[in-house]
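@channel sequence for tomorrow's demo:
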Amino acid sequence: MLRLARLRITSLSVTQQTVQKRGFLSAEAAAVLEEGWELGAVDSYVKDAGYRLNVCPTILKSIVPPDREMTVSLVLPMENGEVGQFTAYRVQHNNTLGPYKGGIIYHPDVDLRSMRSLASLNTWKAAINNVPFGGAKGGVAVDPKLLSQRELEKLSRKYINGFQEILGPSSDIPSSDIGTDERTMAWMFDQYSKLKGYAPAVVTGKPMYLHGSYGRDSAGGRGVMVTTREFMRKNLQSRIEGTTFAIQGFGKLGSWAAHYLAEAGGKIVAVSSSETATMNAKGLDIPALRHHLASKPGALLAEFTGGTAVPNDVSFLETPCDVLVPAAVAGTIDAKVAEKLKCSAVVEAGNGAITLDGDAVLQRRGIPVLPDVIAHGGFMVASFFEWTQNISNFRWEEEDVARKLDSHMIDVYRNVSRLAADKRLTLRQAAYDVALARIVQADKNRGHA
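structure tokens (generated this afternoon):
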């Protein structure tokens, strides 16, 4: 199962609802800023972009901290007669370009610090991918596997109750994420509609039969394929057909990425999950592998007859291949791992898969990277599409969604790639320059700076 990267600063301990807006941050967050921006890797990239663009430090410091942080204690009667108490969070980072947007995570490692980091990432991801959203993130510190379906439903409805005043189709739009799914979004849409009136656009990632959008489930993987195709054409002077890929993480994102890469002629030689891994130097049969996993509960990659079981530990990342695709946990490729990679390029499909020091090592080794803010952008763009359809109350056909997604992702990549070539920057540096320039200009146009 995916896990969140453990972050160094302990989360705030709050037992009742707290709202903190820009200019009224926690002492902890303020201290972090005073120490020199150390809110995480994302903010380091933003700070560097600010220096390159000569952005006024005062303006930059007003953009980095979140606009609002809210913590709520959710009390839940359990089916065993006990009373559970779960801490829930929502961090709204920046809404200069549009309503806050970000997923809701159910995971034991959820804390305020991780929500801040992920909310910030969503701000820049939205700006880079040119969608009219700001960044947000929410979650509950809970292991969803330990709750019954009825308990999960109650918890999801209580989350909406607790945050109802800051959520809305024009203010903050949650979506499914780690530990949540379309069923969760259906409960949340229903609860919000009971409280505030019918509002399908209040969340994205809903079931198709309940105002969902075609193609959203596969959008992340499709986005990986489209941007990888452009990356290989423009930066590697190559193409997907005949290229070997190793994919770490075979959940929704990794499995769909494998599907589309194989469909485009790529050779998937190895895939891993949190339990096991399999490889085949001649190329795995991805449709057969996905069918195997869906054939029975608990089916493992290592049991697939079309491959050979291999370790799923950090050594998996050393699999010889043309392109490595980390699509699982954050912090996978640090400096030590980066030194051992046996690939020609890395497509960072998973959020934060490459650490700051890992990125520096890859640059030194001359291994090009397609960064997460581009490679992982398919989900953000698909959420925008679903929200747009809900607002207009008009559903697009599946072919229209796929065509619009492909066109959008191609434009995003080419815009960043052009800047990278002109200014001799990495794709990550160019992406953050594009994002920061858009937000700073929007702030000025709106009279905020």
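heads up for whoever presents: The mean pLDDT is 90.
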